[in-house]
Specification:
single chain; mainly beta; 6-stranded antiparallel sheet; globular
Length: 264
């Protein structure tokens, strides 16, 4: 066989992210002072500080907390309503839940989204209703934070994680998104501790919960396909978290010619 030079194209990946947090704001909070109020349902209301832009992605993240008077489960069910907008719960019906039957408290997290959303004016009320079915709740709290994100190519929730433990660790969650893409990541937790943590490396800390203590959230763009989002600054005695990964960029393929020696 004749010797020949073979040109090999090497694909060199260089990640770039286009997802941008346009606005991140605490939405609202509500408290039920007794079991009757919690069973009837409590409603937190809030709004975006400025008008959202048509076509952007809207994310609503929920923190929930309900002390119990026995070892019975005190979980809450959520619903989100906004005039002219339909919110979709993450991965169908995700609610992260931590039940501590020693300290008698339930912590919850959940998330909802609207993709390629219509514009929402700053005067539009966003309502989050929380209802508990347990008759063993002494009180309940619900609180939410609002995101508006531009530049996402996701048209649905791509990947996510529910994580939690009573073992006293630093809140974290691992996610795997769409191969060949970078992601915009949101990770939050509802914990039993009272000492606020700091954002993990490369992440921006969002607003902390006011009544559903301890509730925190962080976010970052241009994250790799497989990523672990983690807070920093210490452990939390018991926590539950929900993490979300959205497609925000593509790993570009740059062609570089390299010549290989003769092959028989």
């Amino acid at each position: 066989m004749m010797r020949s030079l073979a040109a090999i194209l090497l694909l060199i990946g260089s990640a770039f992210g286009s997802g941008t947090a346009v606005q991140v704001a605490l939405g609202g909070h509500a408290t039920g002072a007794n079991n009757a109020a919690c069973q009837a349902g409590i409603t937190a209301t809030g709004n975006y500080p400025v008008n959202t832009t048509i076509g952007n992605t809207l994310i609503l993240y929920i923190w929930g907390s309900s002390p119990t008077v026995s070892n019975l489960n005190g979980n809450m069910a959520y619903s989100v309503t906004t005039s002219g907008v339909t919110w979709t719960q993450a991965n169908g019906s995700w609610v992260g839940q931590l039940f501590d039957n020693v300290n008698h408290i339930v912590k919850q997290t959940s998330a909802y989204g609207v993709f390629n959303a219509a514009s929402i004016s700053s005067g539009t009320t966003i309502s989050v209703n929380a209802i508990t079915a347990s008759n063993q709740i002494s009180s309940c709290n619900v609180e939410f934070v609002l995101f508006e994100i531009s530049g996402l190519t996701s048209s649905a929730f791509v990947s996510g994680v529910l994580a939690g433990t009573l073992a006293g660790t630093t809140p974290s969650g691992s996610m795997t998104g769409t191969a060949g893409h970078t992601g915009f990541v949101i990770f939050g937790f509802s914990g039993e501790g009272s000492s606020a943590l700091t954002a993990g490396t490369g992440y921006t800390l969002g607003p902390n919960a006011v009544t559903t203590v301890l509730g925190q959230i962080e976010y970052a763009s241009a994250q790799p396909t497989s990523v672990t989002a983690s807070f920093a600054g210490g452990a939390n005695p018991g926590w539950v978290g929900t993490g979300l990964w959205f497609t925000d960029g593509v790993i570009s393929a740059t062609s570089v010619a390299r010549h290989q020696g003769s092959v028989f």
